Amino acid sequence: MFRLLLHKIVNKIYSIHQYILSLNDKYGVALTDKQLHFLVVGAFGLALLIIIFPIFKWLAKKKLVMSITWIYVFTVLVALTLAIEIGQGITGTGDMDFADIVAGILGFFVFSLIFEIIRQIYLKVFKKN
Predict the structure, then answer these.
(1) Which of 21, 41, 61, 127 lies 20 to 30 A from 121 at CA?
(2) Residue 118: Cβ within 10 Å count
(3) What whole-number distance in Å separates Cα of residue 78 and Cα of residue 87?
(4) Which stretches within 62-97 are classed as H helix?
(5) Would you say 44 and 16 are in contact if contact means Cβ atoms under 8 Å apart?
(6) Please, are residues 106 and 90 in contact by the beta-carbon 8 Å criterion?
């Protein structure tokens, strides 16, 4: 199942890549593949920054820094678990399995929940305002 999902993602990225290359050719712009990656990834990253910055700013104003931290860690863990699964598939050290990614992320959810319960108890007992 993971291979099918990964295959679909790769095919979609390939389609977008080919479309951008066709625009490059259509308009006679002689950009290299690296120059196109520079422009597209740079623009995509900036778009994400513009979208995500106000959300994180709002969370910071509400003093929800733990939420910002959690979102960041969650994002890193998704990338890491994907990399691990892809690495297992390439090296043959394990099966590329979407269920492994889900299990890892679920583990993070459970550990986060336990941590937050303990944190809230600590804040209520020791941090009286």
Answers:
(1) 61
(2) 10
(3) 14
(4) 65-91
(5) no
(6) no
Q: Whole-prediction pTM value?
A: 0.70
Alpha-carbon distance 129 to 113, whole Å?
24
Buried b (16+ CB within 10 A) or exposed e, 31-66: beeeebeeeeeeeeeeeeeeeeeeebeebeeeeeee
pLDDT in tens, the chain (129 residues): 667 877 788 788 888 878 888 888 888 888 888 888 898 889 998 999 999 999 999 999 999 999 999 999 999 999 999 888 888 888 888 787 888 888 999 999 999 999 999 999 999 999 865
Name the helix (H) or strand (E) containing 63: none
How far apart are alpha carbons 51 and 45 in whole angstroms? 10
Distance between CA atoms of 90 and 71, rounded to whole angstroms? 29
Give the length of the chain.
Answer: 129
Contacts of 78 by beta carbon, 8 Å cutoff, 6+ apart: 101, 105
